[in-house]
Amino acid sequence: MQLTKDQIASANGNLNDHEADFNYLANKLSRSGTDVESLVKSLADFQVAVPSWALGAGGTRFGRFSFHGEPGNLEQKMDDVGILHALTQTAGAVSLHIPWDTPQDYAAVKQIANRNGIVFDAINSNTFQDQPGSKYSYKHGSLANTDEAIRAQAVQHNQEVVRIGEKLGSKSLTIWLADGTSFPGQRSFQKALAQTEKSCQEIYTALPEDWSLLIEYKPYEPNFYSTVIMDWGTSFMLANACGDRAYTLVDLGHHLPNTNIEQIVATLMAKGKLGGFHFNDSKYGDDDLTVGSIKPYALFLIFNELVYGMRHNPENPNLAWMIDASHNIKDPLEDLIQSLEAIQEAYAKALLIDQIALSEAQLNHDVVKCQEILQEAYRTDVRPLLQRARLSRGGALSPLAAYRSLKVRENLIRERGMHTVATGL
Ligand code: LRH
Ligand code: MN
Ligand code: MN
């Protein structure tokens, strides 16, 4: 199924209320010196990759519940990203996980992507599960395994993933390792780190020249005593050991409680080493909940640092933005629409921060003013700006309302059936 611009325009209906809301906000912001036109353009240009594994009702490792009309193959997943992009005009990229979503028919997959204006962003390898047909098991690790043959198999898998990505036009490989231990004494920390560094270097040196390597970290889970790439510092060290085109990837859920993620973002960007971002939200750990559902203010503070870094750290590359959220109780497309909206909202609010006034207040040690400046931006209802950005590209005034009024899920069920189970996670 594909949504046409006409269908979306008809779902949008009369835009008079939007015009009034937008004009009110635009006048107010203009009076305080904001260039509203360029702000709307920044929002319209901001694209986030949808992970192929979030399109089915995947959910948690404890249970999967079949969802109606969910995609059964990669082509159908690409169709779903097309629907999301048509509505939101923000989901112009997809991030594949291999082998969960290894293309069978490259031409068909590329054709769907082109038709929907979608590009292939960072591609993800998977050495945290045993793959059918593989000679060795990753039970005791992959890139950090004590056994050279197992490490070589894991390196080769990553190289294979790059070859797949090359056929699609991806330009970066994301690695996330489950390697670690669940009990003290199980493994030498130093040897595991050294093996991981060597394996990462092997992957990095085989990369095409215009590719980059994104190294994701996570403090615990699935191992519960130690994880080899446990934090941003370890990832940063490994990226430096690889070379200029290796970077750290921050997944919002991969931190110990109360970690100051915005400061990590600032530190990495100052060193030109923040390469990618996985958005989600959490209450406890790596909960992978809808972006902005639990801690929207924290997300805003993170975006404040991202905006600052994008303006002041030209040596930092353009970031690979991706959603990494999945659970099993919402319609996955509605959930992704909510995540995309939350990301845009946090970005818009961060763009509204009066940076000149903020640095002046910082120099004057006016702590109260500093907080007021941040919260003035945060308290602004930016939704009319998001609407304007979407409308400027032919998207929906309200993607969620349009999704429901156009009966997208009902149509997908008609096409694909009631009892469907997505591939992947
Ligand atoms: C690990 C992770 C990583 C994987 C994805 C499925 O927790 O965040 O990015 O590739 O989940
Ligand atoms: Mn992740
Ligand atoms: Mn995760």
Automatic annotation (TrEMBL):
Tell me which UniProt keywords the record has, alphabetically: Isomerase, Manganese, Metal-binding
Gene Ontology MF terms:
isomerase activity; metal ion binding
Q: Tell me the Gene3D superfamilies matching this sequence.
A: Divalent-metal-dependent TIM barrel enzymes (3.20.20.150)
The record, for SUPFAM superfamilies, names: Xylose isomerase-like
Record InterPro entries: L-rhamnose_isomerase, Xyl_isomerase-like_sf
Which superkingdom is the protein from?
Bacteria
Protein name, please? L-rhamnose isomerase / sugar isomerase
Q: Which organism is it from?
A: Neolewinella agarilytica
Task: List the lineage, top down.
Answer: Bacteria, Pseudomonadati, Bacteroidota, Saprospiria, Saprospirales
